[in-house]
Amino acid sequence: MSNERPTAEELRQGITVEVVQGDQDVQSTEREPIVGEVGTIYEDSPDGPEVVLKNGVVGHVQRIVHDE
After folding, report:
1. What CA–CA distances, in Å, run from 56 to 27, 35, 39?
2. 3-state secondary structure labels for all residues of 6-46
3. Ramachandran area for residue 62 (φ above 0: left; ψ -120 to 50: alpha; else beta)
4. pLDDT tens for residues 21-37?
5. SS3 for 50?
6. Which of 15, 42, 48, 66 counts the highest number of beta carbons within 10 A?
7. What's the rounded Cα separation, in Å, for the pair 58 and 60?
8. If you compute the radius of gyration of the chain from its CA atoms, what whole number of angstroms results?
9. C-alpha dihedral sign at 63, 21, 28, 25
10. Beta strand pairing status for 50-53 and 16-20?
11. What is the mean pLDDT of the chain?
């Protein structure tokens, strides 16, 4: 599995992603991932593209969640 974060250009509304919120430590293994559908895509940042999920959570995308 690749640890490469997607870019903002790779994201589309409605796809399912895993995000971390700005106040969470991106490198921490203790964090609970937040999974949801992309609502609004902002811009790329060093922590991953910033998005607003359809459930209102704002965070940085860590990976795209593919249907198993």
Report:
1. 23, 12, 8
2. CCHHHCCCCCEEEEECCCCCCCCCCCCCEEEEEEEECCCCC
3. alpha
4. 876 555 655 667 799 99
5. strand
6. 48
7. 7
8. 11
9. positive
10. unpaired
11. 86
Tokens encoding 66: 């593919």
Question: For residues 60 and 19, is the Cβ–Cβ distance under 8 A?
Answer: yes
- Asked whether the predicted pLDDT for residue 58 surpasses 60, the reply is yes
Where exactly are the structural domains of the chain? Answer: 8-12+19-64
- Of 25 and 39, the structure prediction assigns the larger pLDDT to 39
For residue 9, which phi and psi values (nearest 5 degrees)? -70, -25
Rounded Cα distance between 9 and 22, Å, is 20
